[in-house]
């Protein structure tokens, strides 16, 4: 049975604080996104282990461009800036207002949540998207093999339109 919330839960407006990150950024063809995401998260885990740093969040992916290729960074938040290690770099998720929804279900249905976020932006003209969205993977697929039970937080950073 599908999650009663549907593909995306209620969209909430929140003010986020900034977070230090450890990420690997890359550009890939959409057909190789899943493999590239796994490679990036593995590289981040290895870099953090070498530095003795513990992640302060689950994995996330932040998108910078969609098109023929997808420009994204994958990583985790950390409590203090890391030292760059090969392709793994320190960074930051920004503070400020954001529209946030929780997607319930497999990753290949995330488009429904992105569509809902687009409709929310259209219906809330006081806000504009402010940079690329990111996804925080609340459910670890290796711990929960049933994709209908996966939860992903989808975050659109915002700015005032005025």
End-to-end Cα distance: 43 Å
- Helix percent reads 10-25%
Q: Give a quick account of the main beta sheet: strands, pairing sense, barrel closure.
A: 9 strands, antiparallel
Name of the level-1 CATH class of the largest domain: Alpha Beta
Write the layout of secondary structure elements.
Blueprint: E1 12-16, E2 19-29, H1 33-51, E3 60-65, E4 69-78, E5 88-93, E6 96-104, H2 110-123, E7 127-129, E8 134-137, E9 151-160
Antiparallel strand pairs: 1-6, 2-4, 2-5, 3-4, 3-8, 6-9, 7-9, 8-9
Write a structural description.
The chain has 162 residues and is α+β, with helices and mostly antiparallel strands. Strands 1, 2, 3, 4, 5, 6, 7, 8 and 9 form a nine-stranded antiparallel β-sheet that branches. It folds into two domains: 1-16 and 97-162, Regulatory factor, effector binding domain (Multidrug-efflux Transporter 1 Regulator Bmrr, Chain A, Alpha-Beta Barrel); 19-93, Alpha-Beta Barrel (Multidrug-efflux Transporter 1 Regulator Bmrr, Chain A). The protein has two helices and nine strands; from the N terminus they run ββαββββαβββ. Strand 3 (60-65) and strand 4 form a beta hairpin.
């Amino acid at each position: 049975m599908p999650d009663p919330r549907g593909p995306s839960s209620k969209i909430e407006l929140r003010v986020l604080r900034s977070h230090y990150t450890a990420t690997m950024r890359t550009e890939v063809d959409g057909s190789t996104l899943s493999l590239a995401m796994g490679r990036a998260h593995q590289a981040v885990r290895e870099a953090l282990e070498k530095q003795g740093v513990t992640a302060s969040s689950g994995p996330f992916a932040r998108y910078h461009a969609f098109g023929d290729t997808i420009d994204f960074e994958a990583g985790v938040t950390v409590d203090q800036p890391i030292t760059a290690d090969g392709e793994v770099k320190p960074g930051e998720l920004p503070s400020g207002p954001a529209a946030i929804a929780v997607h319930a279900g497999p990753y290949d249905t995330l488009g429904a949540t992105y569509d809902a976020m687009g409709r929310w932006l259209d219906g809330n003209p006081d806000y504009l998207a402010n940079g690329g969205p990111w996804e925080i993977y609340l459910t670890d697929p290796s711990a929960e093999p049933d994709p209908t039970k996966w939860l992903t937080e989808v975050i659109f950073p915002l700015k005032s339109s005025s």
